[in-house]
């Protein structure tokens, strides 16, 4: 999957921690405890990304996760009423997230991990359904994958060599 490089210098990014897990590695001397943090960042204006940070301390894992998320930012195509431009399905691993366009006033109808992704992307009206795996990391990555595949009517019209009115009819 090809990602466009997004300039984050002038962006005000918000972050939310989706999950923190304690992982244990059994070694000769006993058990090594570490933490993994799944962090989602977004500017509320069509950019969102997710990252995973691992460290021996929780704050350090969150910081690393945020840095990783900033590296993996994607752009989301939004329409005039802060919804997505068309319905789509995002897949990652065995998790699938169905993303459906919604009219003004619908709000965000989504389960936990997908809701966080939609809120940080700046989407105000959407309906989603998580299908398959309920693994938080895979659901977040599937939602971001689905959002990154969205295209604006202008992009579709240009690709097909038609006008926007012909595409929307």
Structure commentary:
This protein is α+β, with helices and mostly antiparallel strands and 169 residues long. 30% of the residues lie in helices and 35% in strands. It has five helices and eight strands. It has helices spanning 58-71, 112-121, 136-148, 153-160, 164-168, and strands at residues 14-27, 30-42, 47-55, 74-75, 88-92, 95-101, 108-109, 126-132. Strands 1-2-3-4 form a four-stranded antiparallel sheet. Helix 2 packs parallel to helix 3. The longest helix is centred in the middle third of the chain and has 14 residues, at 58-71. The chain is elongated and about 70 Å long.
Please give the share of residues in helix. 25-40%
Q: How many extended strands?
A: 8
Uncertain runs are: none
Mean pLDDT, to the nearest integer, reads: 91
Strand content: 25-35%
Major sheet: 4 strands, antiparallel
CA distance, first residue to last residue: 30 Å
Rg, Cα atoms, Å: 18 Å
Helix/strand/pairing category: alpha+beta
Strand order of the largest sheet: 1-2-3-4
H/E element string?
EEEHEEEEHEHHH
Given the C-alpha coordinates, what overall shape results?
Answer: elongated
Assembly classification = single chain
DSSP summary: helix tally: 5
Quick synopsis:
It contains 5 helices and 8 strands; from the N terminus they run βββαββββαβααα. The protein has 169 residues and is α+β, with helices and mostly antiparallel strands. α2 runs parallel beside α3.
